[in-house]
Each structure stands twice: as structure tokens, then as C-alpha cells.
Amino acid sequence: MLGTTADAIVVAVFLNGPSKEPKVLRYSAKARNAATAELSLESGGQDADASLLPEGFLSGKCRGLRMDDGEIDAAHIYWDPETQEFLDWVR
Predict the structure, then answer these.
(1) CB-based contacts of 82: which residues, under 8 Å, 6+ apart?
(2) For residue 8, what are the β-bridge partners?
(3) What values do phi and psi take at 35, rounded to 5?
(4) Rounded to 10 degrees, what is the CA torsion of 77, 11, 65, 17?
């Protein structure tokens, strides 16, 4: 789920249904355009150079979310099994 205000872009991921508390990532609307931000599903970096992928990202074995405002590099959001939390990276 994507929510925006004048100050922030918020991505909420519900792991166990809407009755449980979501995992939340926040992005500054000063760096990204909240008015044009979109959230979509993406494949797990199958086309990316493995040396550019962050540690914990299971290339080709997971799906992630892409938060993109069309103005700066998209944030790629993924579940890190080692830290047991959602992390993000920018290409």
C-alpha cells in the first residue's frame, strides 16, 4: 500500500493480512515527488549485475516492490531473510 503527504511517501506491506500491523518504510517527499510516486511488483533482479545487488537480496528467487516517482532512481524493496525485515536499494 502506498500513501503520500506533502512531506512523506509511505509504503506499508501487510505480511499476514490487513488485521496485522504492517511493515512500514518511509521516504522523504523532499527527495522524491509524492504526487507521481507509484508502487508496483517486480521480479527479483534477474536482469541486474549480481555485483550491484545488496547482500541478502536473493536474485531471481524473490519478488519485490518498486517505488518510483519517474524523476529519480526507483527504490527496490525486498525482504531480507537474514535481518527479517524489508530493506531497499537504489540502482
Answers:
(1) 56
(2) 28
(3) -70, -25
(4) 110
51-83 per-position pLDDT tens digit? 666 766 655 566 789 999 999 999 989 888 778
pTM: predicted TM-score of the whole model, two decimal places: 0.78
| Cα distance between residue 12 and residue 61, in whole Å | 22
Q: What angle do CA 28, 65, 57 make, to 5 degrees?
A: 100
Q: Which residue is associated with the grid cell 506499508?
A: 12
Residues of 4-37 as b/e, b for ≥16 C-beta within 10 angstroms?
beeeebbbeeeeeeeeeebeebebebeebebeeb
Alpha-carbon gap, residue 53 to 45, rounded angstroms? 8
Residue 51 in grid coordinates = 555485483
